[in-house]
Design brief:
By secondary structure, this protein is of the alpha/beta class. Helix content is 42%, strand content 17%. The protein has a domain at 11-133: 3-Layer(aba) Sandwich (Rossmann fold). The chain has seven helices and five strands; from the N terminus they run E-H-E-H-E-H-E-H-E-H-H-H. Strands 3-2-1-4-5 form a five-stranded parallel beta sheet, with helices on both faces. Helix 4 links the parallel strand 4 and strand 5 (121-126). Helix 2 (55-65) runs antiparallel to helix 6 (155-164) and helix 6 (155-164) crosses helix 7 (166-174). The longest helix is centred in the middle third of the chain and has 17 residues, at 100-116. The termini are far apart.
């Protein structure tokens, strides 16, 4: 009787700061989960970058936003992404792209990653058209000044932004989001 090995799990890493997670990120992650057996959302710990949310808050917001999907893991890393990918036995690094302007920088990083670790592929996923204009920076700025970001971030993120920005709470109470927004 010949024993067969179970198929190798295809793991992809989706790195970023996720400060905060946006619906654009959610879109990329959900599509990556359709391609790979496991997706690790990896938050880069970068002490030189001033983040609005602590690493722990970001980890929790991502976990809550995906409501316990067993194919999704959330982790942190520092150092070289390819070293982290090697440690996780990843076959791919996912990069979300919003516009052609993202491509040049992402292409250079992909080539360097390939040079450093030839067995990991870079996979570029375009953000859905609905989310092309969103970025964590723009969402934070809008929230700071009371802009309604309800349909641009998952609900756990919206609640955390409301904790950080009292003006957002005030504006949302005056003009509650329409039915059907996330």
């Amino acid at each position: 009787m010949r024993m067969t090995m179970p198929p190798k799990k295809r793991t992809a890493i989706y790195p970023g700061s996720f400060d905060p997670l946006t619906n654009g990120h959610m879109d990329v992650i959900q599509r990556a989960l359709e391609i790979f057996d496991e997706v690790v959302v990896a938050i880069l710990r970068n002490p030189s970058k001033k983040a609005l949310f602590s690493t722990e808050e970001r980890l929790e917001m991502i976990r809550q936003s995906f409501n316990g999907n067993s194919a999704l893991k959330v982790d942190t890393f520092d150092g070289l992404l390819v070293d982290y990918a090697r440690m996780k036995h990843a076959v791919a690094i996912i990069r979300g792209m919003r516009a052609i302007s993202d491509f040049e920088n992402e292409f250079q990083m992909a080539l360097m990653n390939r040079k450093l670790h030839k067995d990991v592929q870079s996979v570029f996923l375009m953000t859905g058209l609905r989310w092309i204009f969103t970025s964590s920076s723009i969402i934070k700025e809008a929230a700071q000044f009371g802009g309604d970001i309800s349909d641009m971030v998952p609900n756990p993120v919206k609640l955390k932004l409301m904790e950080k920005f009292p003006l957002l709470v005030e504006k949302l109470e005056q003009n509650p989001p329409k039915k059907g927004s996330r």
